[in-house]
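Propose amino acids for all 163 sites.
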């Protein structure tokens, strides 16, 4: 019995470490070390991604960067809230995977749903659809040029007077 409990704790800790490591890598890739993305292995709360897009306009780069910068504090807040309630272990939440969200306990589900709704509103207020946001996330992960353009825009938007 104790071995089973230890094995379970080891698996949970290993999954959490892997998720955190992937989130750190995603953060470095997306914003040159500043703002983590929301797709893929970002710790905790993410949007799933659809098909990869091949083109991106300058306006979409700006809209994407604005969305990421506005969503990130809310993602961190939701992640930390769930982490505090769960005693450190945060379940993976993918906003467009309804079955996964429905499997969460009531308190966790409420936080996740609220975060996902806020993120969707932010994305749409920046003239993107969630689908297009996810496509751009995949594109920046696959295309170093696009990643560089997004990183530059994230940095530009963080300068005083650039919002």
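Proposal:
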């Amino acid at each position: 019995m104790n071995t089973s409990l230890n094995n379970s704790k080891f698996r949970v800790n290993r999954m959490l470490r892997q998720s955190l490591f992937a989130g750190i890598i995603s953060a470095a890739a997306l914003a040159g070390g500043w703002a983590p993305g929301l797709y893929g292995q970002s710790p905790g709360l993410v949007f799933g991604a659809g098909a990869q897009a091949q083109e991106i306009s300058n306006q979409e780069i700006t809209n994407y960067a604005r969305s990421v910068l506005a969503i990130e504090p809310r993602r961190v807040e939701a992640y930390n809230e769930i982490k505090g309630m769960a005693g450190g272990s945060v379940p993976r939440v993918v906003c467009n995977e309804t079955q996964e969200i429905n499997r969460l306990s009531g308190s966790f589900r409420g936080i996740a749903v609220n975060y996902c709704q806020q993120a969707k509103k932010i994305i749409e207020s920046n003239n993107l659809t969630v689908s297009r946001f996810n496509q751009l996330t995949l594109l920046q992960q696959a295309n170093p040029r696009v990643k560089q353009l997004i990183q530059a825009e994230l940095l530009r938007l963080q300068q005083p007077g650039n919002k």
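The longest strand covers residues 45-46. Helices lie at 2-31, 58-86, 98-103, 106-125, 130-142, 144-157.
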